[in-house]
Design brief:
alpha+beta, disordered N terminus, 8-stranded antiparallel β-sheet
């Protein structure tokens, strides 16, 4: 896990950076924050897995859900990465923040750059007759043999404060799943007045995210229809 060296967590509008990957913190989040977790099966097999994680790391979940993504800045390749505190499954810190490996550019087969930690983007979405711009920073990119994805955190100007992660997982039976986790609260008193509408819109977007990669490019087999688990984190 890495983030841009000059992007300390204090630049974000929340403090528990990386907490979407700590199950205990998703169950007992910081005071005032509401966690949710959604998971859906999107297919089967190695090709399905590769296609899905490449789509995830090129903003296609957001774009296929009707969100316009404008990348504002990308960290230089030779910039030293910043690694935030990491947590175990009980939410306990297991390693301190540190400055480490240089960031490296990676590309999809068609040449599209893959997401890198430290990337700043503005997400433009439309809801209830309004256009809302939501600035975010990619705080982590996950690159494991059977688990790949990323998390972004909110910046000032976003309607909510918190973090959201998008992770594609391949299980031992070859099934491919998309997991979405988030914890958030209204970012200001103004947005707190619209909390019910914010919550409804977040659920609508979660549903769209879950469907964004189903049946795309690599078609699932006869037994590969989506199974879904959705709702508040337990």
């Amino acid at each position: 896990m890495s983030t841009r060296g000059t992007h300390r967590p204090t630049d974000l509008s929340y403090g528990a950076v990386g907490a979407t990957q700590a199950p205990d913190l998703m169950t007992f989040p910081p005071e005032g924050f509401v966690p949710t977790e959604d998971r859906t099966r999107i297919g089967h097999g190695d090709q399905r897995f590769e296609t899905a994680w490449i789509q995830t790391l090129t903003w296609q979940i957001q774009e296929r859900s009707g969100i316009s993504v404008h990348v504002d800045s990308v960290p230089p390749e030779d910039e030293v990465g910043y690694t935030p505190v990491s947590f175990d499954d009980e939410g306990k810190p297991v390693s301190a923040a540190s400055v480490g490996t240089e960031t490296t550019a990676r590309f999809a087969p068609d040449g599209t750059p893959l997401l890198r930690a430290g990337t700043v983007a503005t997400l433009t979405m439309h809801a209830y007759g309004r256009t809302v711009q939501a600035p975010v920073r990619v705080v982590a990119v996950y690159d494991e043999p059977d688990r790949k994805g990323f998390a972004y955190g909110t910046l000032d100007g976003h309607p909510v404060s918190g973090e959201e992660s998008f992770v594609v997982e391949r299980t031992t039976d070859g099934s491919v799943w998309l997991q979405i986790r988030q914890f958030s609260q209204p970012a200001s008193r103004k947005w707190a007045l619209a909390a019910p509408l914010l919550k409804r819109e977040q659920r609508r977007m979660a549903e769209a995210y879950l469907q964004a990669l189903v049946g795309t490019e690599v078609q699932p087999g006869p037994a590969d229809g989506p199974d879904r688990l959705t709702g508040p984190a337990d």
